[in-house]
């Protein structure tokens, strides 16, 4: 029993010390009691030094204060400064603090300073237990690199994170961010953006609905409906990376690069864009599409590179090039397109060094039912009308046209020149060591015989996409042989290679025989966390502040119209109670405090004079 009594005494004493430890300490040069105006409170004011409060790690200085000792609550007026440790300083014209709940409210030119940022607003709530600050009447955060503004904001001190909602604007000397919701980490300057967001600068505009941006390193990563607009190019894709200092952007999966001046589009599943170099590199099912006379030309290859200013664009394609147009298609190992001059080169290259198999293949062009091959093929278009003007085949030129019934009409030589009218082949000239095999028919399309001829040069004229006649120009050596007398093994010229099964008949044939690309999994950006309500539901007997607070109970409740919520729920609105009215109330109360202080000064001065008068008597 003895030990039990001792334990109760010790426990009671400890409880008393604990309760005492939670009481607010203060220092003031003047104390005034006016029960009529401030029942249960003492009015504090400074003369040479400001009024000082201290409570569990937070210090407060002010010119005047009303302190409700029993309620452990005070209201501070004039040059208010709150200090929590060496990391948080807050200044304002007015503040309230409840020592029991450790909840504070400040208004009137509020400025909260952290090592990396400063926050300025009209009114601010500060919960020391949660270590969170909150405003809903518009605020400005100044970072080492940027200025951030929003209607609603919440600061999480443990994470050093700001969450901004509604009309969020980040202003940097190089760019401006406009967002619906943005989380900002002040230690490293990282920003996470949610909802429709734009990043605008002199050289580019970025749009996304979910993204990340390093405001100090000027790099970003964007997902969900993302695009980057340069002066004459638009980059879109599932995932975009952006580096402002290098004028560089890259995209992954479902990429589209639009040339807004040249009516062209490049697609693929990985791309790199260098703005200053006017270059685009794209791969993984890469396709370049250019509109010509209401008919698009599609070029596909393993890799595409587009370089040069808009007026002098160059397209290069490497490996397994496939080209398709409604009236023409082709294949080659590489391609070169000069959009200014209208020249397209289909070129032979050798990759045998990379594999054990010689993959060198002649370029091939199909125009209607005519196939043309050679070491190199040039297509020349009129840059103004964009219509095909001519083609040239250099070295080992070989033209094949499948006969309407059987066999193949064949023409070979060193070089071939084809001429076009309205994108339709009407004349072909072949020079140097030419050979032909031609199935000759009468007007009823009956086979007369097979003509095999050697000559120095040949001219072929076409009508209705068929060979109309062949003109053998010089040194002609050939005969027309009846079909039964023409040996089967002599009906194919040396170098014959019919590739009609490779001909492209539609845009889909660009990828014929190729497996779908394996898309890289996108590292997404998770949705913002929905924090607990800033204002806890308090009992009427235990408010966050105090019954003597300037705020009403309904002001200390979270509601959809003025709290951080999912993007879809946030509305553009101000605080529940107009801040101007609160400031007017504070001014009126401060005026009363100053009048009370003036009366006290008058009384003290009178007492002093009375004492001096008694001493002289």
TrEMBL record:
A Pfam family of this chain: OstA_2
Coiled-coil regions, chain positions: none
Domain Organic solvent tolerance-like N-terminal residue range list: 47-179
Acidic residues bias (residue ranges): 532-542
InterPro entries found in the cross-reference section: OstA-like_N (IPR005653)
UniProt-annotated stretches for the region Disordered: 532-551, 594-617
Superkingdom of source: Bacteria
Protein name per its UniProtKB record: OstA-like protein
Native organism: Antarcticibacterium flavum
């Amino acid at each position: 029993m003895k030990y039990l009594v001792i334990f109760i005494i010790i426990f009671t004493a400890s409880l008393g010390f604990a309760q005492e430890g939670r009481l607010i300490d203060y220092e003031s040069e003047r104390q005034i009691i006016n029960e009529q105006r401030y029942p249960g409170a003492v009015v504090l004011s400074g003369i040479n030094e400001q009024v000082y409060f201290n409570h569990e790690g937070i210090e407060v200085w002010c010119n005047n204060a009303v302190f409700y000792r029993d309620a452990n609550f005070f209201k501070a007026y004039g040059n208010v400064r709150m200090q929590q440790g060496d990391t948080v300083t807050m200044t304002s014209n007015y503040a309230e603090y409840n020592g029991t709940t450790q909840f504070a409210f400040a208004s009137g030119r509020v400025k909260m300073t952290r090592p990396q940022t400063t926050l300025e607003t009209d009114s601010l709530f500060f919960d020391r237990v949660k270590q969170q600050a909150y405003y809903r009447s518009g605020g400005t955060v100044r970072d080492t690199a940027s200025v951030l503004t929003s209607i609603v904001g919440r600061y999480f001190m443990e994470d050093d994170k700001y969450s901004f909602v509604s009309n969020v604007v980040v202003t940097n000397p190089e760019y401006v961010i406009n967002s619906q919701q943005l989380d900002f980490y002040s230690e490293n300057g990282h920003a996470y953006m949610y909802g429709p967001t734009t990043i605008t600068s002199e050289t580019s505009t970025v749009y996304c609905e979910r993204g990340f941006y390093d405001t100090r390193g000027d790099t970003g990563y964007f997902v969900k409906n993302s695009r980057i607009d340069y002066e004459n190019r638009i980059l879109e894709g599932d995932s975009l990376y952006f580096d402002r200092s290098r004028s560089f952007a890259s995209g992954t999966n479902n990429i589209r690069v639009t040339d807004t001046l040249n009516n062209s589009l490049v697609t693929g599943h990985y791309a790199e864009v260098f703005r200053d170099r006017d270059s685009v590199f794209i791969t993984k099912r890469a396709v370049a599409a250019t509109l010509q006379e209401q008919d698009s030309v599609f070029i596909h290859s393993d890799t595409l590179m587009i370089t040069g200013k808009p007026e002098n664009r160059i397209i290069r394609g490497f490996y397994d090039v496939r080209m398709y147009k409604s009236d023409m298609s082709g294949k080659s190992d590489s391609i070169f397109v000069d959009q200014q001059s209208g020249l397209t080169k289909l070129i032979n290259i050798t990759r045998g060094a990379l594999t054990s198999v010689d993959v060198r293949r002649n370029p091939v062009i199909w125009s209607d039912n005519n196939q043309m091959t050679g070491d190199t093929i040039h297509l020349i278009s009129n840059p103004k009308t964009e219509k095909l003007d001519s083609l040239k085949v250099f070295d080992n030129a070989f033209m094949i046209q499948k006969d309407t019934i059987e066999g193949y009409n064949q023409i070979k030589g060193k070089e071939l020149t084809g001429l076009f009218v309205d994108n339709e082949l009407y004349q072909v000239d072949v020079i140097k060591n030419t050979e032909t095999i031609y199935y000759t028919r009468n007007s009823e399309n009956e086979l007369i015989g097979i003509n095999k001829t050697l000559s120095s040069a040949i001219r072929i004229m076409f009508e209705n996409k068929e060979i109309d006649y062949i003109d053998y120009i010089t040194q002609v050596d050939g005969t027309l042989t009846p079909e039964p007398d023409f040996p089967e093994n002599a009906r194919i010229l040396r170098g014959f290679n019919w590739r009609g099964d490779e001909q492209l008949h539609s845009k889909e044939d660009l990828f014929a025989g190729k497996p779908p690309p394996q898309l890289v999994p996108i590292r997404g950006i998770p949705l913002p966390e929905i924090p607990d309500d800033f204002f806890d539901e308090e009992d009427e007997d235990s408010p966050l502040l105090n019954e003597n607070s300037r705020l009403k109970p309904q002001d200390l409740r979270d509601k959809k119209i003025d709290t951080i919520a999912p993007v879809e729920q946030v509305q553009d609105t101000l605080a529940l109670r107009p801040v101007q009215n609160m400031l007017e109330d504070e001014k009126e109360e401060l005026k009363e405090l100053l009048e009370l202080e003036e009366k006290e000064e008058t009384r003290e001065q009178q007492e002093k004079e009375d004492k001096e008068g008694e001493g002289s008597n």
